[in-house]
Amino acid sequence: MKVDTKEINPAFKSIIQDPNQTVFLDANFFISPDRSDYLRVKKYSFDDFKNYWLIPLLSEFSGIAIHESVYDELVEEKIKAYADEQANDNPAKIKIYRDSELNATEIALMNYYIAKLAVHSQYDPTRDNKKDRGEVKSLSFMAVKQFLLFAANDALPVRLIKEADKLNTGLDDLGIVQMYELIYYMCKTGKYDNKQLRILYKYQYYLSPADKRTNPDWGTFIEQMDKLYEENN
To answer: Does the reported pTM lie above 0.90?
Structure first.
């Protein structure tokens, strides 16, 4: 994934100004990253991911939400148990939205959005296959209910939202927030372990030779994000 420190992201700036907004998450915000298939590294452990990413995330943002299709992707026992614990807490730290909340008109509209988005993905609504289902269904539900913010670390939702006009996805009003932006946010609060946030950033964005050709190192990343957001408040 490419780290953009050149242009202000209005969606991220909106979250900085109001961290209590409803923000839908993609599954990769819950599932610890694993780049071991093509790099000689271990999978990032879920315990570290929970302690240094999920707990800070759910502490800082009170409007975290997921669609049921994303919840269904959380199949690993530790991950699902943690999501259930947070959803059942009082007050709940995660709200799960379900298609059963939609009326007949909204269901028809959601199916319309699904069809528009599916052609740009590997999701086939007729088969209801798993690939890209969470992203397509989450974004379709959000469009129907007019939620505005989606957080992901995947190229598909970034493209569907950022190129909404070009691709005719109907998602023109949605904003996308990426993991590196929220890593930066949590770093700047001064409340969390910045060494561990740096390790997570490096694992996600500065590990391979291709990453290093495209993305800034940690120090440059923080410096450029400071310039982008602190000077434009």
So the answer is: yes
Q: Is the pLDDT of residue 218 over 70?
A: yes
Query: What is the tens place of the pLDDT at every residue in 164-202?
Result: 999 999 999 999 999 999 999 999 999 999 999 999 999
Q: Rounded to the nearest 10 degrees, how much is the dihedral formed by the CA atoms of 33, 177, 147, 105?
A: -60
- Residue count of the chain: 233
Give the per-residue pLDDT at 37: 79
What does the DSSP assignment read for the chain? -----SS--HHHHHHHH-TTS-EEE-GGGTSPP--TTTSS-PPPPHHHHIIIIIHHHHHH-TTEEEEHHHHTT--SHHHHHHHHHHHHSSS-SSEEE-GGG--HHHHHHHHHHHHHHHTTSS--TTTT-STTHHHHHHHHHHHHHT--EEEESSHHHHHHHHTHHHHT-S-TT-EEEEHHHHHHHHHHHT-S-HHHHHHHHHHHHSSSHHHHHHS--HHHHHHHHIIIIITT-
pLDDT digits (tens, 9 = 90+) for 77-115: 999 999 999 999 999 999 999 999 999 999 999 999 999
